[in-house]
Amino acid sequence: MSKTYLTPEDLSDRWSLPLKTLSQWRWYRKGPPFVKMGKRIRYTIKGVEAFENQVVETNTCYEKNNICPNFNFR
Question: Is residue 50 part of a domain?
Fold first, then answer.
C-alpha cells in the first residue's frame, strides 16, 4: 500500500528544501496544498504532484511568485 500523505520532512527530502521554506510557503499559501490533522501537517501526494506539474509546465514559480529560486525537482 502506498502512502497517500507526506509529512513536511518527507516533502523536504523529496525536494531538497529546508523545513523552514515549507513552513513559510504554508504561511503565505504559496506552496502545495496541505491538511492539518491536530497539530500535524500533511501534504497529499496528489496535491504535491499537481503543484510539481504546475511549476514545471507553467514556470510560475520563477516568473510570477519567485517563491523557489534555484529549485530543481528530482
Answer: yes
Cα–Cα distance for residue pair 55/66, rounded to 1 Å: 11
Please write the tens of the pLDDT for every residue from 47-68: 999 999 887 765 555 544 555 6
With respect to residue 19, please indicate whether it lies within any of the assigned structural domains. yes
CA 10 to chain centre: 10
Residue 52 lies in a domain: yes
Distance between CA atoms of residues 41 and 15, nearest Å: 17
Asked if 11 contacts 48 with a C-beta cutoff of 8 angstroms, the reply is yes
Give this prediction's pTM: 0.70
The Cα–Cα gap between 66 and 70 comes to: 10
